[in-house]
Amino acid sequence: MEDGVEGRDGVDGMGGVDLEAALHAARALVLADLSARGVADAEVVSLVEDAVAQRRWWVQQWPEGVGFVAGLIAQDVQDALLERYGRWPLCPRCEEPHALAVEPELGPDPHWVCESRGTVVAPVGRLGA
Fold first, then answer.
1. Quick one: how far is CA 100 from the chain centroid?
2. What is the residue-averaged pLDDT of the chain?
3. Using omega within 30 degrees of 0 as the cis cutoff, is the peptide bond preceding 89 cis?
């Protein structure tokens, strides 16, 4: 690959990471969590698609952030759901309803955390496991 032009091997000039593969993987993780909680209807999937499109632009501006897109898309969808439907995903471990948080807020290997207990509930994409 030369001059940042995508080659036939799928490398796109961002340190060997395929942007589209990272975005599709992040999309799949968030959809898995939505499905696990029974909220992956067409309107919610559209929210995921909007978040992916916005983060595509973001990571094109900051290629070093490609490893962070899964957590960011999860947060974007969580924010969009809060505005339209309410808190998601709810903590399965506490009696008092509250949403889980994504940690790290900006970093690799995001996971859902119960902030009340300070415990990890599941990696993003594994709420149903």
1. 13
2. 87
3. yes
Q: Whole-angstrom Cα distance, residue 108 to residue 72?
A: 10
Convert the pLDDT of each residue in 63-76 to its tens digit: 999 999 999 999 99
Q: How many residues does the chain have?
A: 129
d(C-alpha 123, C-alpha 113), whole Å: 9
Nearest residue to 106 (alpha-carbon basis) of 74, 79, 77: 74
- Determine the Cα–Cα distance for residues 78 and 44; give it in Å rounded to an integer: 10
Q: How far is CA 60 from CA 10, 19, 24, 32, 91, in A?
A: 16, 8, 15, 25, 33
Q: By three-state DSSP, how is residue 113 classified?
A: strand
Q: What is the C-alpha to C-alpha distance for residues 62 and 48, in angstroms, rounded to an integer?
A: 20
Measure the CA–CA gap between 71 and 73, rounded to whole angstroms.
6
Q: What is the pLDDT of residues 90-111, one digit of tens each?
A: 999 999 999 999 999 899 999 9
